[in-house]
Design goal:
Number of helices: 16
Oligomer: single chain
Protein name: Aspartate aminotransferase
Organism: Hapsidospora chrysogenum (strain ATCC 11550 / CBS 779.69 / DSM 880 / IAM 14645 / JCM 23072 / IMI 49137) (Acremonium chrysogenum)
Helix content: 40-55%
CATH class of the largest domain: Alpha Beta
GO molecular function: L-aspartate:2-oxoglutarate aminotransferase activity; pyridoxal phosphate binding
Number of domains: 3
Strand content: 5-15%
Catalytic activity: L-aspartate + 2-oxoglutarate = oxaloacetate + L-glutamate
Largest sheet: 7 strands, mixed
Family: Belongs to the class-I pyridoxal-phosphate-dependent aminotransferase family.
Length: 479
């Protein structure tokens, strides 16, 4: 009897296990099992990178250039490709250093996305004294850590708008402005607003080339991205005729993204007269201009001069969208202080636009961070501190401009017969040298000067100490 009972219990358990097994197996398969592995931020350079998103590919190239630079033992080495801080975590292949002294296969991931960050003449990060003072005041005021409103620290958006549009701008009374998570957040917010409320085609046209992240930002908002002609690699300058043709041939009411100043990555800007012509074409075609202004004050050293295009378009009657970043001109990279604004028809329209911006922001990030915005607002709203900041921004811009002049002078002084005027006619942090990929490779291999194969250099990586070596390297390869 006992034996029969045990056998019966065992049979029941076997049946139960048979029923549970498929359920357990199903639970073992994660609901995220179909999520594919995305490409790493820094990944091997080679055939596989051709399929990567451009923003990822650019960061990938930057990471590998920097790691190769770190592995190079040449005391004269220069990194003009990226200013990236790396830490050992994931394995990637790194190009062999021409001057061994480090590992050929290092491990790296960016621990600080410093591409495009300003450096002083010693090659070090720089915190503006005006920012230090503003931060001291913010801390001394013992402000609370409550949430900001949906549109941010109240004193900041309008102060940012005045900086961009001008204190006496007729548009100030009809601008919907909000604080954003730096310039990237402003672009993303603008993209989402266009997706929801632009009556025309859900498409934006960006210059060729453009900042690597532009395409990703707009596509993420489900906007189609098309590119218009901008840079002429043969003249190392603006393809103005091509740009004009593309503006004229685009459907009426198209959205065009413009870099307000210091075009990234070429450093090539339209002249004031060309901006006026661009504005008139946009009026005739009823195009909607979307300005990305990441370098106001940092480009020429003059905030008003750098805002020329934005203010000209406003004078001509455009109702623009504007993205602002305070990463470069205030050095608030990690504080993520930015602003987005739209010029409306009147106060009633602005009120409606503002309501829709809040509806977008609320589920996206609810409200922006407060510390960087408080620092920026303190500077912008205090006349004495504002004057100090303007002088410091000019100092940063002047250093970049001086390095451009020095590089050109040294190249010409070495007897180079090439026309290097583009080095000084370009503006901002980046410069296209005009070197071809094979020339870049030779400069890197023979002289330990690292930059991207399209010949682009980060001018802030040039210092008084290394500009001579840079010029000599370029001259010996280019002639």
């Amino acid at each position: 009897m006992l034996s029969t009972t045990i056998k019966s219990a065992g049979a029941r358990q076997a049946v139960l296990r048979a029923r549970i097994a498929p359920l357990a197996a199903a639970r073992a398969v994660s609901i995220w099992s179909k999520v594919p592995q995305g490409p790493p931020v820094s990944s091997p350079i080679g055939a596989r990178t051709r399929s990567l998103p451009i923003a990822v590919l650019t960061r990938s190239i930057a990471g590998c250039i920097t790691e190769a630079f770190k592995a190079d033992s040449n005391p004269k080495k220069i990194n003009l490709g990226a200013l990236l801080s790396l830490s050992p975590t994931l394995p990637y292949h790194v190009p062999s250093s021409p001057h061994p002294g480090g590992p050929k296969n290092a491990q790296l991931t960016p621990s600080s996305p410093g591409v495009g960050a300003y450096r002083d003449d010693a090659g070090k990060p720089y915190v503006l004294p005006s920012v230090r003072e503003a931060e001291r005041r913010v801390i001394d005021d013992k402000m609370n850590k409550e949430y900001a409103g949906i549109t941010g620290v109240p004193e900041f958006p309008q102060a940012a708008a005045k900086l961009a549009y001008g204190n006496d701008s007729p548009a100030l009374g009809r601008i919907a402005a909000t604080q954003t998570i730096s310039g990237t957040g402003a672009l993303r917010l603008g993209a989402e607003f266009l997706q929801r409320w632009h009556a025309g085609e859900k498409k934006i046209r960006i210059p060729t080339p453009s900042w690597a992240n532009h395409k990703a930002i707009f596509q993420d908002a489900r906007l189609e991205v098309e590119q218009y002609r901008y840079y002429n690699k043969d003249t190392i300058g603006l393809d103005f005729d091509g740009m004009v043709q593309d503006l004229k041939s685009a459907p009426e009411g198209s959205v065009f993204l413009f870099h307000a100043c210091a075009h990234n990555p070429t450093g090539v800007d339209p002249t004031p007269e060309q901006w006026k012509e661009i504005s008139q074409i946009c009026l005739q075609k009823k195009h909607l201009p979307f300005f990305d202004m990441a370098y106001q004050g940092f480009a020429s050293g003059d905030s008003d001069r750098d805002a020329f295009a934005v203010r000209q378009f406003i004078r001509d009657g455009h109702k623009i969208l504007l993205s602002q970043s305070f990463a470069k001109n205030m050095g608030l990279y990690g504080e993520r202080a930015g602003a987005f604004s739209i010029v409306g028809e009147d106060a009633e329209e602005v009120k409606r636009i503002d309501s829709q911006l809040k509806i977008i922001i609320r589920p996206m990030y609810s409200n922006p961070p407060i510390h960087g915005a408080r620092i920026a607002a303190t500077i912008l709203n205090d006349p004495k501190l504002y004057t100090q900041w303007q002088a410091e921004v000019k100092g940063m811009a002047d250093r970049i401009i001086t390095m451009r002049k020095l590089l050109r002078e040294k190249l010409e002084g070495l007897g180079s017969k090439h026309d290097w005027s583009h080095i000084t006619s370009q503006i901002g942090m980046f410069a296209y040298t005009g070197l071809k990929p094979d020339e870049v490779e030779k400069v890197t291999k023979d002289y330990s000067v690292y930059f991207t194969k399209d010949g682009r250099i980060s001018v802030s990586g040039i210092t008084s100490d290394n500009v001579g070596h840079l010029a000599e390297a370029i001259y010996k390869v280019k002639g």
